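Subject: MiaB-like tRNA modifying enzyme structure
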Amino acid sequence: MRVRLQTLGCRLNEAELESWARDFQARGFTIVEDETAPAELIVVNTCAVTGEAVRKSRQILRRAQRRHPGARLIVSGCLVSLDGGATSAGTAQAFPLSSLLPTSTPPASSTVASDGLIVVNRDKDRLVELVLAALGLDSGLPHPSATNAMDLAAPLFARGRQRAFVKIQDGCRYQCTFCVTTQARGPERSRPLPEIVREVERFQDSGIREVVLTGVHLGGYGADLGTDLTHLIERLLNETAIPRLRLGSLEPWDLPERFWSLFADRRLMPHLHLPLQSGSDRVLRRMARRCKRDEYIRLVEGARAAIPDLNLTTDIIVGFPGEDDDDWRQTFELAESLRFGHIHVFGYSPRPGTPAAGFANPVDARTRRRRVGELESLAHRSRLQILRDQIGKTVMLLHERLPDAFEGRPRSGYTPNYLPVHVHSAAPIGEGSLIQVRITGLDAAAGLLIAEPTGVEPMAPECIEPAQA
């Protein structure tokens, strides 16, 4: 039986999709990557972090209906966990698609399934098991152990076949007033540390060269287990030989002083995504954020002093209720001074059920759009400067075969600090090779560094030296 899996949203969603792919494969199913190819099961991992994410999730579901008439649709993720209605724990429950697609028209063909299966976030780790049981497909199929499932092929959907996402925790204990994820994902739950170490080891044994740790509240890892993220990273660096370890988004208040010392091991990549959200303390208080403006600045200064060639990226919400001209000026000026390598700009989108959705003094749409445009222009200029600063440096590049193109050009991989590079090389370069390259230029239109191999043989991870200007 053929299964098509699709996701949008965060890296955690991608990590979950990878896990489902391995589970389906271990039970004898064929994973279909081509969206137009026939499939009997369609699994969609939805997102609801913004109104736009909800729109895109519904668009994917409608497209799946059109392209796969008669296929059974399985929907999980934050959209259905918030809007799909109550479900019993530990079940994959049937639901009418009209409940998720309220504006959709009746299907033209009677062969299109009128209902699907919903698996809410709290049951995601058992999605394959629950779906097969609900469809009566579990009898006679192998029930592999987690170890056997990990022995399957490299990731199908992650960003590059040599990179894998590892989910280390789920849920969040904080209540930022704009955030719907806490409702959708529930309380914090951390995976046992030895289990994570074993998963990274198995990825390494299967040829994966880079692992990205993901979670809803990554920095909160281990609070329910008597440990913490710093200890987990230490264990991974000491007990595995994974060439590259990368971190997902981290809340700025979660990082202890000893965290920076971890980056002395060059296998921990010098890229941090630290959400700022606003540069105004007044707005940050209304958001119920736990890091003030000056605290964030000191954190960035400490990180840059400790981590050579750090690339710092962030999230900023524009047009939060009550954001006046002075608040906006503070945010813009702070973003300009901190020189982010990338800014994920969110125009504020009220999410039902969040405190901020009922706040007074909403920012009008025209002002919000103008501010978004101003910040996106600043972000573009800042990123180009970060890219220009790399020219002339020699770095280790993980050469990847990526499934898409970047502005019409193939991306050859990423620098340690997560900047995209295209390598000009007369000789073929093996997928998954760690090669030394010299950054020679910049394709500004594509936002892409240009590099060439130095002729130095690929190096063992423990031999990698810091980039030199």
